[in-house]
Amino acid sequence: MLLSQNAFIVRPLNLFLMVCISLVFGISHDLPDYTSESCTFKISLRNFRSILSWELKNHSIVATHYKLLYTIMSKPEDLKIVKNCANTTRSFCDLTDEWRSTHEAYVTSLEGFSGNTTLFNCSHNFWLDIDMSFEPPEFEIVGFTNHINVIVKFPSIVEEELQFDLSLVIEEQSEGIVKKHKPTIKGNMSGNFTYIIDKLIPNTNYCVSVYFDHNDEQAVIKSPLKCTLLQPGQESEFS
């Protein structure tokens, strides 16, 4: 009994001495960061694809590759690896084919590596209905004498569960006046959609932005403005 007590006393003493030596001589040991707060995650609907992206808060950590795992909170299952993000060098992952339910909570784990060394492990829980942000769709504009054609580009096929009760908003700006158009889209948002902004004034510069509006109060992400000068008798180029 006396031997084991002495051994118990010696181990903390040795550890204390190692810490003191490290502090005195500036010796440091890189240990993996296992705090959930070491990463910032973002889940976005981009061109109707569910994209999870991440960023390290400590920019001095440089990972060569990442591994993403997840499980569904309501199901008693172990974490499983996302196949297309099992050894990815990108700081994002397409989860469209993995996360298909907007009513489930997804428990996510991200591991970062440098070669064979684990640098960090972050975790986060996602509810798509709450956490999803909606990026604006791609679009073009074509100007005529007194109207503008706005061509919004949707994917040819969009899964119904990824519609999220979204409303398309087309914002028109000219000489400090902003007007919002909310076109009615019949059926799913798929394929190209053309909306005409008419009764416009010739020889006037107009700018257009498009974005999605959601029933919940997520922050709106507007597209960059595209502008055109309406010239009489001819189509105008868009920029």
From TrEMBL:
Gene3D superfamilies named in the record: Immunoglobulins
Predominant location: membrane
The entry's keywords: Cell membrane, Disulfide bond, Glycoprotein, Membrane, Phosphoprotein, Receptor, Signal, Transmembrane, Transmembrane helix
Ranges for domain Interferon/interleukin receptor: 133-229
An example molecular function term from Gene Ontology annotations: interleukin-22 receptor activity
Transmembrane annotation, as ranges: 12-29
Entry membrane topology: Single-pass type I membrane protein
Origin: domain of life: Eukaryota
Domain Fibronectin type-III: 15-118
Gene Ontology CC, one term: extracellular space
InterPro entries given in the database record: FN3_dom, FN3_sf, Ig-like_fold, Interferon/interleukin_rcp_dom, Type-II_Cytokine-TF_Rcpt
Intracellular or extracellular location(s): Cell membrane
Keyword Metal-binding assigned: no
Record's function text: Together with IFNAR1, forms the heterodimeric receptor for type I interferons (including interferons alpha, beta, epsilon, omega and kappa). Type I interferon binding activates the JAK-STAT signaling cascade, resulting in transcriptional activation or repression of interferon-regulated genes that encode the effectors of the interferon response. Mechanistically, type I interferon-binding brings the IFNAR1 and IFNAR2 subunits into close proximity with one another, driving their associated Janus kinases (JAKs) (TYK2 bound to IFNAR1 and JAK1 bound to IFNAR2) to cross-phosphorylate one another.
Family label: Belongs to the type II cytokine receptor family.
Protein name: Interferon alpha/beta receptor 2
Organism: Macaca fascicularis
Lineage of origin: Eukaryota, Metazoa, Chordata, Craniata, Vertebrata
